[in-house]
């Protein structure tokens, strides 16, 4: 028997908001735009629409594949030719939507085929989604679309299932075949998330990406930490969102309770493009929740 989320309207609304936020970010990513301003404007839009960011806006560039969000003091500006991944999330009461797109800043057109390859790959993966269908069928469809354009999938990064307040819910959707024996279930919410590169096809950990997550509920011994957990739960967040100096200090003291996210960097310093949609596995295939 299919098990759909009981608050399905929230999932659909969060998906629509996330899709609009993604498109806003891709439009605003022009030469001279500050990374901090871009992230702030995307996140303000999500809040203005009645949702909350499900994680800090990821603005990873060039050979950075994922997990960079601007810090409080980030003063860098986008430059012509930057290959920018705009990865955003929105949630309404824990109903999460996760989506991404890639833009070549300034329309320098050096990486048009790379961007096309990742768009083809996410579309191919979505078309392959079927209730009861093998995850590997989706993975092989993504891989074929990438190879058809002469590029490599990033093997170490995958799509994922999503549950309430849980961005990565345990089931991975690899972007290459032969890695999963799982099946998709009707009613599941799934992020289809290919990464494409002209490099080695693998990632390694880079510097801290300014993203944190509570590993578990810290309890009520420290009221400042309890307040922060009440706001973020176990979803990723950034100290850019924390304006109270005492709360920032409490988070710094409690680093052992927090997971930190490094930037994922392509091992051969190849350039990376990303595309992502959150879909609902319906009776006849995928319902794309994050269409703008």
Structure, described:
- This protein is α+β, with helices and mostly antiparallel strands and 292 residues long.
- The protein has a single domain, classed as Creatine Amidinohydrolase (Alpha-Beta Complex).
- The chain is built from six helices and 15 strands.
- It has helices spanning 8-28, 35-48, 112-127, 135-148, 223-232, 245-253, and strands at residues 52-53, 58-61, 64-66, 83-92, 95-104, 152-153, 158-162, 172-174, 189-192, 195-197, 203-214, 258-266, 272-274, 277-282, 285-288.
- The chain has a five-stranded antiparallel beta sheet with strand order 8-7-9-14-15. Strands 1, 2, 4 and 5 form a four-stranded antiparallel beta sheet that branches.
- A hairpin with a 2-residue loop joins strand 14 (277-282) and strand 15 (285-288).
- The two termini are 31 Å apart.
Task: Describe the structure in brief.
With 292 residues, the chain is an alpha+beta fold.
CATH class: Alpha Beta
CATH topology: Creatine Amidinohydrolase
Average pLDDT level: 97
What is the H/E order?
HHEEEEEHHEEEEEEHHEEEE
How many distinct folded domains? 1
Indicate the low-confidence ranges by residue numbers.
none
Fourth CATH level, the homologous superfamily: Creatinase/methionine aminopeptidase superfamily
Strand order, main sheet: write it out.
Answer: 8-7-9-14-15
State the end-to-end CA separation.
Answer: 31 Å
Strand content: 25-35%
Q: How many strand elements? A: 15
Would you identify the CATH architecture? Alpha-Beta Complex
Instruction: Name the helicity range.
Output: 25-40%
The SS-based structural class is alpha+beta
Largest sheet: 5 strands, antiparallel
Helical segment tally?
6
Please give the radius of gyration in angstroms.
18 Å
3D shape: globular
